[in-house]
Amino acid sequence: MFESWYACRHLEHLGLPASLVAETFSSATFANGLLAICAGMMANAAAETPLRLGPTAPFLLAVPCFAGCFAVVAAAWDENYGNQARIYPGSVLPTYRKTKLRTFIHMRPIQYIAILHANI
Known about the structure:
Layout: H1 2-13, H2 19-47, H3 57-76, H4 84-87, H5 92-106, H6 108-119
Helix pairs in contact: 2-3
């Protein structure tokens, strides 16, 4: 999911050259490895603190990190809906939805699957 979002953002919204996509993914993979190592070291240090939180300490340490990431994403991230005119030209989208609704109404097995999925 992230890769497709990034490629769209890189090429269409930012207008950067396509040749940089592979380099960016390579740098992101390397940084991801370094962050994983640092996170493991921090989790180990948190688990061995004198507070005696034990194996739950890394999870407690993760809560403020997730909260900080949520704040950044909520403040800075804009939703990418793509080019809707290109995907659903004219009045195709309402027709598409009506066709799917008719299929759902007239086919019992699909209804059973929906009910099963909703109850799981």
